[in-house]
Design a protein that fits this description.
seven-stranded mixed sheet
Length: 333
């Protein structure tokens, strides 16, 4: 059997162009004991993948040149050399950016038994949802009545973060760059603020108007002027959970830090970065908390879907243009 997959032959600088990605084909070897062969049905593209295209080891190894790219995927088992899986099982794994994956069974997980669409395990019930839940609960230790600010608030992570925060009863403000995204936030009872083409001073004023009492929690996805404006609007004892800084991912050189970092001292705030994979032991608790809400329709999650394996590079690059509402997904036939 053959597998079609995307790879890169060099590490790009700055914003990657689409011709960085090469679609190739390989013959899969015979299925060995302990391996599983999966026909992918849904692929995930995520901003963190840009860091793996830098050639530098951060919290995760870079992509290997000329090898299949990797990412979260959901598919159906079509061949199994492991007793834990049988043909027809629906599973998730990290063999994305390809139509057929052949992987060690230890890296494959059966989908939980919840009445939700299978692609939900790449979004609201997958890594992005787990990231939102972990940042608010384990890192920021969100409390009842906290005022919460979320950047990239209509994205895959932010859209769940604002809903979880809203359930705690405080004022919730979301930063979003398009009217459509702000309309969705407002439909959730979230105060929506436009951050596009604003300097930190202007955005700081807008946040102060949106929530004059200031924020107990800031969920950071963007960095740049969003972080600087947020620092100006912290309450004493505020907590900042940093899961990403997408504004910097394509920078070709060092970016300046916020000019008002002293606000962390003045407000006695705590700012902590986190990698969700290091908290994955809490996934069952997350699924127990959020899964039934998703199944019952109590969580409004958004998806942006592109069709076909060939659409994967464009779907990935569109993340950096803000072209997605909610989770960006690629559906295979």
């Amino acid at each position: 059997m053959q597998s079609n997959y995307y790879t890169i032959s060099e590490y790009p600088t700055g914003t990657p162009s689409q011709d960085v990605f090469k679609l190739k084909q390989q013959d899969l070897p015979a299925l060995a004991d302990g391996e599983v062969r999966i026909r992918n049905r849904w692929l995930s593209v995520d901003p963190y993948m840009r860091g793996r295209m830098s050639g530098v080891t951060t919290y995760i190894e870079p992509f290997e040149l000329e090898a299949p790219l990797e990412g979260a995927a959901v598919g159906e088992v079509i061949g199994s050399g492991d007793d834990r899986f049988k043909v027809g099982d629906k599973v998730s794994h990290m063999g994305g950016w390809r139509d057929v994956a052949q992987l060690p069974a230890d890296g494959v997980t059966a989908l939980p038994d919840l009445d939700v669409p299978e692609q939900a395990y790449l979004g609201v019930l997958g890594m992005p949802g787990m990231t939102a839940w972990t940042g608010l609960n384990a890192i920021a230790e969100m409390q009842q009545g906290d005022n919460v600010l979320v950047s990239a608030a209509s994205g895959a992570v932010g859209s769940l973060a604002v809903q979880l925060a809203k359930a705690k009863g405080g004022v919730v403000v979301g930063l979003a760059g398009s009217q459509k995204k702000r309309d969705w936030l407002e439909s959730q009872g979230v105060i929506a603020v436009d951050y596009r083409d604003k300097d930190a001073a202007t955005l700081s004023e807008d946040l102060a108007k949106a929530c004059p009492d200031g924020f107990d929690v800031y969920y950071e996805n963007v960095g740049g002027v969003c972080l600087e404006a947020a620092l100006n609007n912290l309450r004493v004892g505020a907590r900042i959970a940093v899961c990403g800084m997408i504004s910097r991912y394509n920078d070709e050189g060092p970016a300046p830090g916020p000019a008002n970092l002293a606000m962390i001292l003045i407000r006695r705030a705590r700012m902590q970065g986190f990698i969700v994979f290091e908290h994955w032991d809490n996934y069952p608790a997350f699924l127990k908390d959020v899964g039934p809400k998703v199944a019952a329709g109590e969580i409004d999650y958004q998806e942006t879907v592109r069709e076909g394996l060939e659409a994967t590079p464009e779907a990935f690059l569109d993340l950096f243009k803000g072209a997605n509402t909610g989770k960006m997904l690629v559906r295979l036939g």
